[in-house]
Amino acid sequence: MTTPKPKLIDFELLPHESKAEGGAQAVPRIIALLMDDLFRVPGTSRRFGLNPVLDLIPAIGDASAAVVSAITLFVAARNRVPKVVITRMGLNILINALIGIIPGVGEVFAFWFRPSHRNYELLKKHTPSASGGANTSTRNDTVFIFAIIAVVLSIFTVCVIAGLFVSLLLARALFGHP
User: What total number of domains does the chain contain?
Assistant: First the structure.
């Protein structure tokens, strides 16, 4: 009796894409995969990633998810995506972060909203084509992105501090410490 030979299984983590979108969008694709598309809900086509899982960690989880998602903004600026689109991408991150602070609601919202996936789709749609020549960012693009990120992080820092304060009040109420 001979043992059957094992069959080779073709495994692909990320779907193929054209060379025009490959290099510039590799990091945002990985971020979207990890944060919003890593797992499939059994029996459905719905996917989720680490974003709703990180939201379970009060204050710190929301901050880390926002920082990871913000990397896509740098890629967008480097590829000369229009500033209005970059602003929309920043708002996607901010909306998710602000609603993510609300216990229970934030996790469900992150599962539904999927900001990194939305931002990746915006980046794919609005990145100038490779045939349009070199896409180098200007100093104004860099300043604009840093300003957007500074505003997002400032607002989010206030939210993290408020979340920690509410957690402290909740801990005092639960454990009876004055």
Answer: 1
pLDDT tens, 47-101?
888 888 887 887 677 778 888 888 888 888 888 888 888 888 988 988 888 888 7
- Quote the pTM value: 0.66
Q: Judge whether 8 lies within some domain.
A: no
Which structural domain range is residue 154 located in?
A: 23-175
Do the domain assignments include residue 44? yes
In order, the DSSP letters of 20-54 are HHHTTTHHHHHHHIIIIISEE-TTSS-EE-HHHHH
Largest CA distance in the chain: 75
Residues 142 and 109: beta-carbon distance below 8 Å: no
Residue 145 · residue 73 · CB < 8 Å? yes
pLDDT in tens, 18-60: 444 456 678 888 988 888 888 888 888 888 888 888 878 876 7
Instruction: Name, in order, each residue with C-beta under 8 angstroms of 167's C-beta and a sequence gap of 6 or more.
Output: 58, 59
For the chain, the first-to-last Cα distance in angstroms comes to 75
What does the alpha-carbon distance between residue 2 and residue 129 come to, in Å, rounded to a whole number?
Answer: 55
Instruction: Tell me the percentage of the chain whose pLDDT exceeds 70.
Output: 81
Please check whether residue 14 lies inside any domain of the structure.
no
Flag whether 60 is in a domain: yes
